[in-house]
Design goal:
By secondary structure, the protein is α+β, with helices and mostly antiparallel strands. The protein contains eight helices and 26 strands. β5 and β6 form a beta hairpin. The protein is elongated, with a radius of gyration of 29 Å. The chain starts with a helix and ends with a strand.
Length: 456
Amino acid sequence: MKKINNMRHYNISRLSILALALLGTACTFEQDDYFDESASLRITHLNERLQERLVAQSSGENNGWVMQYFVAGTDDANFEGFNILGSFNEKGKVTLASNHRFLRNSNAGKFTEHSSTYEMLTEEGPVLSFNSWNDILTVFVDPVDPSAAPNRIVSNGEGMNGDHNLVLKKFEDDEILFTGERHSAITRFIPCDRPWQQYFDDVARLKKKIATSTITNYYVINGTDTMYINGLNKGIYVYGERIYDPLKRKDVSCVFTPNGFRIEHEDTLGNSPFQEFVIDADSTCLLNEDGHVKVVACWDRYVATHTAIWELDASLFSAEQTSLSDQIDAEIRNFNTAWSLKSIGIGKSTAAGSVMGLVVTFYTNTAKTKTNTVGLALNMELTEYAKMKIGLPDADSYDKNMSSISAKATELPNLTKQFATTLAGSYTMTPDDYFNPTGCTFAASEGVPTFKLSNI
């Protein structure tokens, strides 16, 4: 009896999908004509319309379809969304293309095309079936683990829980939505607006810009509401109320586009729904459909905590800072005549017992080979987005190099502290790139000189 109840629920769901599909295509054909027909005939006619649209977008100078394809995954493994491009003809042939990481025969990550067959099934609702093996798609359906031993992703026999039979959910001229027949993941079809290789190149270029391994954390902002993303570069990220160890978290799959990224299921922040984000005109953030929700890279945290040394731009030094810099250089030369000042910066000194703060880098020979830095600890606190307060700790904290060198360069600790004091104050930060900064300008709000950092 339980099995019969489940089947009855399944059929109702499929009929609901059909009703939605018919409503979604009301602008495409005469709805009254269809409701004068039997259910099976309506499905047949809708399948015909769907196939005509798939073929039309694949014909002439058109570039076919972008299939934003998701899989259900397993309890142990979730997966990103995948871009698959498709071209359909009226005789049931389909050519698919992708460069996803699960392509077999040494094609992983390479642009690959494969042709196979498809058909329009007339079941309880319209179904698009990829009914023969296709190297691009079938790997997601195959119960065999797509990865090589010993780096297994899923158990053999379980696979990635993708689908090759797609049940129509929504049918509009420029957007067709399906759900997998067995596992219910979403597949979205939209017209491809450029040659296939260019599409993948443009997606890769955009992904490289907004989702690098340098910065993997992002703010998601709607007014005063803020959430966080961690791991966008993997295509499946953690979404929660804080970056590290969120109290509540969920894994979200997304697919990258030439302009941003789209998640599988719509979500909300505050009163604003979001599903797709597009990079704004100034390349400072990504905006959702209505522009209310922003995704902003945590570049300010990166600048504040990055341990590599950010070099201060000496051309922006005040007269006092220039004088102190010259005196620091003289003290280094007092210690060793072959040494000279390379730069003053912010970061983490390289000596044993290193500190995060102000660092002095110097050359050690006439070939000007950069050598160890000496450092003085600083307090660097982000007070809000893109705003930092810099100050000195209550007690001086130097690294071991400073202590060693100051035995001869006796004024070096004091000069370094004086220079650090000139940086104390509150600043508004502006990076040279909001997603992958290599430099940042600190504009003072309390009469302290503006300074600029460059990542060296």
